[in-house]
Amino acid sequence: MADPWLALEFGADPAERIAQVGAAHEAFLTGGAEPQLVREVVRHSWRRSAQALLDPEATAPVDLTDDALESYRAAHPLARVLPLFRDLLGGIAQDGAHLMAVCDAYGRLLWVEGHPGVLRHAERMNFVPGARWDEAHAGTNAPGTALAVDHSVQIFATEHFVRPVQRWTCAAAPIHDPATGRLLGAVDITGGDHLANPQSLALVRATARAAEAVLAQPLDPDVVTVSALGRDEAELRVGGRRIRLGRRHSELLVLLIDHPEGRTGEQLGLDLYGDDRLHPVTLRAELSRLRRALGPELLDSRPYRLRGTVHADFRTVTELLDRGDPAGALQAYGGPLLPGSDAPGVTRLRRLIDGQLRAAVLATADPALLAAWTATPAGSDDLTAWQALARALPPGAPRRPLAVARANQLSLEYDLPRATFLQRPRN
Questions:
Q1: What is the bridge-based pairing of β-strands 183-191 and 223-227?
Q2: Domain 219-364 belongs to what topology?
Q3: Using only C-alpha atoms, what is the Rg of the chain?
Q4: What is the mean pLDDT of residues 406-418?
Q5: DSSP letter at 261?
Q6: How many CA atoms lie within 13 A of 328 on its CB side?
Q7: Cβ(113)–Cβ(99) under 8 Å?
Q8: End-to-end Cα separation, the chain, in angstroms
Q9: OmpR/PhoB-type domain: which residues (predicted)?
Q10: Which of 7, 74, 296, 360 could connect to 156 by a Cys-Cys bridge, CB 3.0–4.6 Å?
Q11: What pLDDT is recorded for position 1?
């Protein structure tokens, strides 16, 4: 059985295929005809591109440039495996016929590398770092479609939705966080028609798997990484060990991370138990057990504070927000901080993170970000966010009826009048 993710079957004539798909593309754009002789993955991608009201002559917009781009790339998880990409794909990127590209989960290109002559040609269609190559902004293309379907894929010549890109062929594979399964982005090779072969798709697939294997390894034996978003019990990684903490120790660890300068026992007690439930003896016992779990080299006392370098997922979110990067912050957001905790200090921090992220996403009015926020536990019942999503989506977008219906449902639940732009027309 032929691989549906490969552009050409063995023995197919590339020129004939380009003409067939090109004719189907024109018929689809001019008359809305159901595409014939087009792969299913491409057919569905064309529909998504058309529903996004994308101009077939459009050029991908550039979101980030200069210092903002540099800061975003430096903080992105895929920066860690950039040397691997260069090692595995560097030769093909310098051969004068191909480009290597890496994008984030929103299709934003992080790195585009290759021969200077090929790079200059790619610049004409904005295939440059900082540009948005998700399907909604650039139509059918390998990195954008690989993200949309979460699978490696080739896109060949006239299979591209946007005409200025149809001289190129590309192959891309998605990359996931090995600890959480979260989509991080995709790796891509782009060039001419000769890329439409099984080897190019196998190469990006193998590169993506190698990147995930590297990301699964500890950053450094002296670096502590903490995951506390979207889970009731924090997970700690240190020195090659993976430690799952109990609820109380998770709360203590989060509070200590939030106060790197240190906390007294009284301050920790208030954040943990509240004014009327401060138990110094119990707190000291909990801290003693936490020290045994972490190791004496990680936890100081007088004041209580963590030693060494600590990376925490919730701190990553706030740092990205401080840099003015709501898309990156939302991508790093795995859910509410220790959602089952009622410790006052954790509750305050959880509300602060969710509130800052929500405000930043609402301010963008970006339908992709608003849709991602409403898909989180914190955003699923957010009436304002659903209304903003309904406003941001064009009338023909497939997700707009769902956004309108959800906004109206929440308005009824909250006993509020429906917004006039959301109300259904009367017969």
A1: unpaired
A2: Arc Repressor Mutant, subunit A (1.10.10)
A3: 25
A4: 85
A5: T
A6: 29
A7: yes
A8: 52
A9: 240-306
A10: 7
A11: 42
Q: Are 141 and 41 in contact (CB under 8 A)?
A: no
C-alpha to C-alpha distances, 95 to 16, 82, 117, 191, nearest whole angstrom: 27, 19, 11, 11
Question: What sign has the CA pseudo-torsion 133, 134, 136, 138?
Answer: positive
The CA-based angle 215-45-101, given to 5 degrees, is 35
Which burial class, exposed, middle or buried, applies to 243 when counting CB atoms under 10 A from its CB (0-12, 13-18, 19+)?
middle
Helix (H, G, I), strand (E, B) or coil at 35: coil
Q: Are 122 and 99 in contact (CB under 8 A)?
A: yes
Q: Mind listing the pLDDT tens digit for each residue in 269-292?
A: 888 887 755 667 777 888 888 877
CA–CA separation, 64 vs 151, rounded Å? Answer: 26
Give residue 378's identity as a one-letter amino acid code.
Answer: A
**CATH number of the domain at 14-215, out of 1.10.10.10, 3.30.450.40, 3.30.70.1560, 3.40.50.920?**
3.30.450.40
Per DSSP, helices labelled H in 131-171 are 135-138, 142-149
* Cβ neighbourhood burial of 396 (10 Å; 0-12, 13-18, 19+): exposed
Query: Residue type at 396?
Result: G
Contacts of 266 (CB under 8 A, 6+ apart): 278, 280
User: What are the domain boundaries of the chain?
Assistant: 14-215, 219-364, 365-427
pLDDT of residue 240: 64
Per the CB < 8 A criterion, the answer to whether 53 and 136 are in contact is no
Locate 77 and state its tokens.
């998880």
N residues, the chain = 427
pTM of the model: 0.65
